[in-house]
Amino acid sequence: MSKAPVAVVGIGQTKHVAARHDVSIAGLLREAALRALADAELTFADIDAVVIGKAPDFFEGVMMPELYLADALGAVGKPMLRVHTAGSVGGSTALVASNLVAARVHRTVLTVAFEKQSESNAMWGLSLPIPFQQPLLAGAGGFFAPHVRAYMRRTGAPDHIGSLVAFKDRRNALKNPYAHLHEKDITLEKVRAAPMLWDPIRYSETCPSSDGAVAMVLTDTEGAARTPRPPAWLHGGAMRSEPTMFAGKDYVSPQAGKDCAADVYRQAGITDPRREIDAVEMYVPFSWYEPMWLENLGFAAEGEGWKLTEAGVTELDGDLPVNPSGGVLSTNPIGASGMIRFAEAALQVRGQAGEHQVEGARRALGHAYGGGAQFFSMWLVGADRPTT
Amino acid sequence: MTEVLSAPLVVEFPFTRSLGPVQSAFLTGLRERTVLGVRTGDDRVLVPPVEYDPVTSAELRELVEVGATGTVTTWAWNPDPGRNQPLSTPFAWVLVRLDGADTAMLHALDAAGPDAVSTGMRVRIRWAAERVGAITDIACFEPDDGTGPPERAATAHHGEFTDPVTGIVAPARLDYVYSPGRAQTRYLAALADRKMIGERCPSCRKVYIPPRGACPTCGVATEEQVEVGPGGTITTFCIVNIKARGLDIEVPYVYAHIALDGADLALHGRIGGLPYDQVRMGMRVEPVWSDDGGFPDHYRPTGEPDAGYDTYKEMV
Asked: Where does the record place the Thiolase C-terminal domain (chain A) (predicted)?
């Protein structure tokens, strides 16, 4: 039996902010879940299973939070499971949920991803004082900055590319009411004048720390036929892993990322991603990762990604808009960040993205990665029901 | 071979919790010696209150006040109280259904011994002298000798208090014993002699430093030890301009990836011995050892000509 087509029929997000002191973790998830159900015009009674995801437990100090979320998410008496793949978890959670529908295990699945970063300190959670190990000497961005320098050396990209990305994403965020950062008076000069935290990464080119949740309702063809708004159809989805460290690892363009994208394109029948994909939501925690991923995902030849950014191709009105939502650079509830990419890609092809809608978007890619470039997860969604 | 190292690893953090409206009312109520529950759509009273109905998932917001006396529904004797438990002397863990509630809550009962505890016995709250809006505002339960207030039904409560508690701090602590394993132990022992010993994979022949005892690509054990360095090449780096948590290093400084001669992947280290803005990719460096017998304190330039990009680009 072939895979069942999967449709995204409901999407809900919280307004992402630095701290949601007014709600519990359960309350935060519930808010996103109810919005996704309202979008689909469904209730918890219509849901067959719930799949949730978040970043490592140390980030909030709630071990196995899924144990206490069944009531808040209407999962009582239903299967509920949790996915855990570091920063990519939001993407892989959506894929596990979609696989349950594609495999005809469940007809309608609610999937939710979240992080309440204000309850803890992610940097602490990532740098436990393991005995006998040399501590990471550089803080959060220090892990990434040397790879950015390597990219610049490898490609000859000029210094200002990173600032262009940050300036674009923060302007896009102004058109997204759910984005965390709304820097109304942003200018390129301000981005460029920000201090270098981990040279070559400026403060203005880093992601914020956010509280937020996102939810989606996925369903089969019958469910999609009943839905009030246009669905987004899943055309391809894949995950890949590789070790965080090994001899020959390419941190600038990891093999697992290339393989994951190639698998998605094969499933979706995409042979020229640059021409055939209308919008991309990619996981860019530091601005320079936009040109790096443009190459890794096959939108540009090696060494050429920065030229797309520089030419304005990735702007909201360019011919390959990247992160029209404002991206991770504007909103980063870590465990939710990957699923926000997937959900925003779906919003684009549903024509439901509001002010940050890419005109006429028919196919969009959602991308997530995490764990020291260890995990990759991606999906390609389209406005049309897949033919194969 | 040398004994494998191990050391305590304590993971400790004061996590914060935003309570949301229901838990906020419950904990603030305890501060005011008022126990609140929540009423469900089918008219049950849940104590402690929850935000969402455990059966229907409906949002629950109708708060009620219940009694400070109740009935033990089941119990277990705790002869040896541990750290951070409610009482330091032996006590009973009890489930108590407070008067007016349909569910029981877990707490401690201060009793003389297991013979003094029984299912169905009447108990009452012993309030803590200092109350802050936490479950520990109930110091424990104690046997009710009949002088407590009579059984009562739940009564409606607005749940509003001045200066409500909206968040709590939940300190978490995990005690591990950590062992880095045989490969790391050998590596650390060699560092004490100021030698850098990696391990070669028998399959792909790559040399790993620090060694992990197995090749992450081939998945086979690595046993052959190979001395690498001490010289090496900076493959890439960043200039750190903000102090990292818990690190006492003057900023700015350079944090670099260093490919030691003979190793097949870079390790990480700080670069010193020259101004931070003169560090280059390809610069040749060597370790500067600290006196504590551990990792090099930092790496400094050797003065050799820079390595060509092609010689290290596979490790960037």
From this structure: 244-374
* pTM for this model (two decimals): 0.95
Find residue B171's DSSP bridge partners.
Answer: B14
Q: A10 vs chain B: nearest CA distance in angstroms?
A: 19
Measured CA distances, A202 to A82, A310, B239 (Å) = 35, 18, 11
Collect all residues with Cβ–Cβ distance below 8 Å to A387 and sequence separation of at least 6. none
Are both B20 and B165 inside the same structural domain?
Answer: yes
Average pLDDT score over chain A:
95
Select from B172, B189, B206 the last residue of a domain.
Answer: B172
Tokens found for residue A116: 């309440």
Q: Which of B284, B281, B308, B309 is nearest to B231 (CA)?
A: B284
Judgement on whether residues B137 and B96 belong to the same structural domain of the protein: yes
One domain for residues B185 and B225: yes
Domains and CATH numbers, chain A: 7-120+208-382 (3.40.47.10)
Among B122, B148, B172, where does a domain finish? B172
Structure ipTM: 0.93
Number of domains in chain B: 2
Q: Is there a single domain that holds both residue B218 and residue B273? A: yes
- The CB density around residue B221, as the number of other CB atoms within 10 Å, is 13
Residue A206 has pLDDT above 80, yes or no: yes
Do residues B191 and B286 share a domain? yes
Whether B1 is covered by a domain: the verdict is: no
Instruction: Give the pLDDT band (50/70/90) at residue A388.
Output: low
**Residue A134 vs residue A104, higher pLDDT:** A104
Chain A residues within 8 A of B228 when measuring between CB atoms: none
Closest residue, chain B, to A198 (C-alpha)? B240
Per-residue confidence at B1, pLDDT binned at 50, 70, 90? low
For chain A, where are the alpha helices, taking DSSP H only?
A: 25-40, 89-102, 122-126, 145-155, 161-173, 188-193, 221-226, 255-268, 273-276, 289-296, 305-310, 327-330, 334-350
The pLDDT tens digits for B272-294 are 999 999 999 999 999 999 888 78
**In which domain, by residue range, is B244 found?**
181-315
CB contact under 8 A, A74 and B57: yes
Q: Is A116 touching B (CB cutoff 8 A)? A: yes
Name the most confidently modeled range: B6-15, B46-55, B151-160. Answer: B46-55
How far is A25 from A55, CA to CA, in rounded Å? 14
The DSSP secondary structure of B18-54, one letter per residue, reads E-HHHHHHHHHHHHTT-EEEEE-TTS-EESS--SB-T
Chain A environment of B269 (Cβ under 8 Å): 134, 137
* Three-state secondary-structure class, residue B248: coil
Domain-embedded: residue B281 = yes
On whether residue B134 sits in a domain, the answer given is: yes
Interface of A with B in 223-262 (CB under 8 A): 243, 245-249, 251-252
Residues B151 and B191 both lie in one domain = no
Does any CB of chain B come closer than 8 Å to the CB of residue A156? Answer: no
Rounded to an integer, what distance in angstroms lies between the CA atom of residue B288 and that of residue B275? 16
Based on the domain organization, do B151 and B206 belong to the same domain? no
Q: Edge-to-edge strands of the sheet including B196-200?
A: B207-208, B196-200, B224-228
The 10s digit of each residue's pLDDT in B41-80 is 999 999 999 999 999 999 999 999 999 999 999 999 999 9
Apex B201 CA angle, A153 and A252, nearest 5: 20
- Do the domain assignments include residue B3? no
B53 and B162 in a single domain? The answer is yes
